[in-house]
# Entry
Amino acid sequence: MSIRTAEAIDAARAAGRDAALIGYLPAGFPDVDTSIEAAVALARAGADIVEIGLPYSDPGMDGPVIQHAAEQALAGGVRTSDVLRVVEAVAATGAAAVVMTYYNPVLRYGVKSFARDLAAAGGAGLITPDLIPEEAGEWMAASRDHDLDRIFLVAPSSTPERLALTARAASGFVYAASTMGVTGTRATVDSEAKRLVADTKAAGAERVCVGLGVSTAEQAREVASFADGVIVGSALVRSLGADGVAAMASVAGELIAGLSTSEDTSAH
Amino acid sequence: MTEKIHYPPHDGPYFGEYGGRFVPEAFVAALDEIETAYEKASVDPEFHAELKKLHETYTGRPSIITEVPRFAEAAGGARIILKREDLNHTGSHKINNVLAQALLVKRMGKTRVIAETGAGQHGVATATAAALLGLDCTIYMGAEDTRRQALNVARMRLLGAEVVPVTAGSQTLKDAINEAFRDWVASVSTTHYLIGTVTGPHPFPVMVRDFQKIIGEEAREQVTELTGALPDAVCACVGGGSNAMGIFHAFIPDAGVKLFGFEAGGKGIASGKHSATISGGSPGVLHGTRSFIMQDDDGQTKESYSVSAGLDYPSVGPEHAYLSSIGRVEYRPVDDDHAMNAFERLCRTEGIIPAIESAHALAGALDIGRELGPGAVILVSLSGRGDKDVETAARWFDLLDDEPGEGA
# Structure
């Protein structure tokens, strides 16, 4: 039985962390087998939720690191079915596995079929960067049928009305895009992030996790002081691409240490 | 000619099942802002007066119509009449939309525009409007396209725009669009993304169509005055589809007027090397809208191809997908050879060098003429002039004395 994202976030808290770590890696990068090994290593290093990226030809929300990884994965022949293999491997470790995908590959696969097969692989839900709740009718129905989380994004430009709409439509957690921009590491965490988390909670969201721009243990600790989860992507992808699976797992370990409330648990 | 078609609600965000807003949440506030500004402007006589003045004193509107009898000798006895958008300032219909959106940018208090361009016509038009209205301007262009359209790159730079060659992906228009989206998400408070065709998230397909429908409104009056009746058929090339929506729109309610959209058939639909999205694509989501797209079994966008950089795009405006689904417009592919033959024919018989995009509509019109028979009146949108395409055409017809790269 797969673990849901809310459960994974709550378990991280219970284990003494300020926030959960949500790590992103694209399926098929640098190749399918290594991406399975890397995703499993990320979960074993202590990531509470592993986001498995479905490489897409037109990743308009991604910065250069993730875009290049997706291009390499596609050039290597990764298919949507491979993404489900990665999900299965991550779910077997006990971590929550979610797929992060632009909408068209899901639409092409068939929204109902995708939900069915993701649930069968042990997946916990979907993060959909280019699908807003107004357009998500088909996915809302399919995700309910298969008990999958719907993780929608909010942005610093979201109005209070839209925060409320998104909080109502989402399940598991709400993904707060901390800055107006694409994925990628940044020197500082945008000050907008804290306000956005507070506003999203005020609008009704139970759990809000922050992504875009977090890459160091120090930034992770800062975000953990006000959010339920810290989402890291480009820093892990870069490390995996440059130095391999073990190096990536070590970066993940450092990030997790940054999320611990006391020295005792920092060696998790 | 009096029979009317009932055209169901078509003001977006959806046209039937097509359209919508498949965008990151970060864009929604900006799209709402544009929609509000556009709705206010569209009922503001001052906006219309300002735009009308620019059209008359800057663009050169109304554009004329030209009957082309020598060209039409190959059309089975049909008459062919061209709507001359090629005579507009900057050389195409693109300026109609760009000037209107640039006026909206001023109203929204933004100071910068970004755009993407394939052949360069939309980029040149945007750089022109930015220069005219004092806006900063950045144009994204696939690196491959900057090589194919080097002169247009120079034109944009002369007009004060920054041109950014995009080296990601296939280095063509779709990658330039992705890069423009990336810029926009980070700069949306000061920047307007000036989309050049009837695609993208709502309200762009509606708004751009409204800014282009002047083409058909003028042509309807002009053709009626010339021939005493509405045309039997209206033909236009379709890439993203803005000139086609522009000329079709005034005729949609008239059941007696057949409408034809000609897509870039490239080396033939069967070859897979084409940009004929409705003829050879399938429903999907790309660049913010649900329409027909060229995709593989996993929903990955396929690379499009056309001899015309301006038609080389793997999607099409959602209203076209809708018009096809209800059978109001017939979309057909025209391959490179057929388009280039019509290109040459218009040059030789009428002294007009058309854009290669428009040559697809010209080739289609010759076919339609032979199908409709003697006396039929066919209106064709000549969406642009061929200055930018002279080098491509010269290579196609082997007219250059020197091999490329030789000489000084």
Q: What stands out?
A: The two ends of chain B are 60 Å apart (CA to CA). Chain B touches chain A through 34 residues (CB under 8 Å). Chain B is about 40% helix and 20% strand.
